[in-house]
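Same chain as my last thread, 180 residues:
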Amino acid sequence: MGNGKNLSLWERAVSKNHPRVEMPVPHGRCCRSYFASSLKINEESVTPKGKIIVRLPAPLIAGGIWFLSSQSTLPQPKGILGYDKFQHLLAYLILAAAISLWISPAFRRRRRFLALLSAALIASVYGVIDEIHQSFTPGRDCDVWDWLADTFGAFLGAALMTLAGVRRSDKAKGGPGAVL
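reply #2:
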C-alpha cells in the first residue's frame, strides 16, 4: 500500500476505515476517479450484518429439526413427502447446504472436497444427536436407517453447494459454466 505520502486525504481515510481494501495507485496518479475505479475489495470483507444474514438459516433449520423431533406425532403429508426417509433426506440436505454457508468462500474455493466433507459431517453428527434426542421423546425411537437417510441428505446438500460454488466461479472466470 505504500507509505501514505503520495495518497490524497480521501484515500488515506478510506484505507484506515477499510483495511482490506487494496489500493493500486501508481506514482503521480492519485486522483479520486482513478482510485475509486481501481478498488479491489476482498470478498472476505462482508459486513457483519451480511454475515449474520447468511449464517442465520443453519441454526434456524437445526432448531426446526429439533422441535419437530421433540413431537410425539407429526402430521404426514401425502405422496413422496409422506415417506419418513425422504423427509429425513430433505431436511438434512437443506441443513448441510445452510451449514456450508458458514465455511468461508476462500476456503471453499481452495479446498472444495474438505469443505464438502466438513459441512456433511457436521450435519451428520447433528443427525446422530437428533436421533438420540428422539429416543427420549414418547412415541419416537432412535433409528439407524433414519440417521443414514440424514447422512445421505447431508452429503447431497453439501455436494450441491459445492457444485453451485464451482459453477459460480466458472462463470466469473468465463470457463465451462459460463453463459456466453
